């Protein structure tokens, strides 16, 4: 069972079969001209099935870099990421994309929607990336996020809250073992924020490992555990 903030035991970074997501000693080094940045400095973390973890930290702490490395969108310079026991890091981009399509849902700040496709076709596109018969139909997913009535709308015709819900439907299209969300409630009003967070919690209750990069106090409140990133280093601040 997930633990509540304040009761989390001190964790080691040895993987257990309950872990859907593990990162071990992640480093990410950037060089832009003369400028060199070490955005991640040995970050290790685990997220168990059914657990919701919030990642917080000041601007520039490395949160988005971490999420990109966990999702296989970016390659860490060192260390390893495993999803459902399968290593996703240090593989060619096409293999990372295939593993991501199979195991991970990603909800990004810029929204993971194709502008010229309807909400329903965006979900179907995500289905096609997985291949085979989807475990959950587009209609069921749109029902789940309360957008059944907006299935034919284009992203630009949606409100901010509807966009967030459509992005979530796309992120959930592959019934992911791990759901990674970057500021999923950033521009939303309080009511819509609580709705989105509840949907993420519902997914965790079904066994998904949920990691949310956030500045939101509400997201921190509902998380089982909080990891603080500071200058590329991670600290579990739940206990
Ligand atoms: N592609 C890149 N090239 C060079 N430096 C980068 C790149 N991406 C990130 N960085 C640097 O890495 C550090 C961490 O950036 P990152 O975007 O991960 O921080 P963040 O915690 O997500 O910040 P914010 O809360 O403002 O989004 C910053 O110093 C940033 O300038």
UniProtKB/TrEMBL annotation:
One of its GO terms (molecular function) is ATP binding. Keywords: ATP-binding, Nucleotide-binding, Transport. InterPro entries: AAA+_ATPase, ABC_transporter-like_ATP-bd, ABC_transporter-like_CS, ABC_transpr_LolD-like, MacB-like_ATP-bd, P-loop_NTPase. CDD domains: ABC_MJ0796_LolCDE_FtsE (cd03255). SUPFAM superfamilies: P-loop containing nucleoside triphosphate hydrolases. The keyword Transport applies. Residues 21-237 form the ABC transporter domain. Belongs to the ABC transporter superfamily. This is ABC transporter ATP-binding protein.
């Amino acid at each position: 069972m997930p633990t509540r903030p304040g009761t989390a035991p001190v964790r080691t970074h040895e993987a257990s079969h309950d872990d859907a997501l593990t990162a071990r000693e992640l480093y990410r080094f950037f060089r832009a001209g003369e400028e060199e940045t070490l955005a991640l400095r040995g970050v290790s973390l685990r997220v168990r099935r059914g657990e919701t973890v919030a990642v917080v930290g000041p601007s520039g702490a490395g949160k988005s870099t971490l999420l990109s490395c966990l999702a296989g969108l970016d390659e860490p310079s060192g260390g390893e990421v495993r999803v459902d026991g399968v290593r996703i890091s240090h593989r060619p981009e096409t293999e990372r994309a295939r593993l991501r399509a199979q195991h991970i849902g990603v909800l990004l700040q810029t929204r993971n929607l194709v502008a010229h496709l309807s909400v329903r076709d965006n979900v179907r596109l995500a289905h096609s990336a997985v291949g085979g018969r989807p475990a959950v139909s587009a209609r069921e997913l749109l029902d789940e996020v309360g957008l059944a009535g907006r299935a034919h709308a284009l992203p630009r015709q949606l409100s901010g809250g509807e966009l967030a819900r459509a992005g979530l439907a796309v992120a959930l299209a592959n019934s992911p073992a791990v759901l990674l969300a970057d500021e999923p409630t950033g521009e939303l009003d309080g009511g819509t924020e609580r709705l989105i967070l509840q949907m993420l919690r519902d997914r965790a209750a079904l066994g998904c490992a949920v990691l949310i990069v956030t500045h939101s106090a509400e997201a921190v409140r509902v998380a089982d555990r909080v990891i603080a990133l500071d200058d590329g280093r991670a600290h579990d601040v739940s206990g």
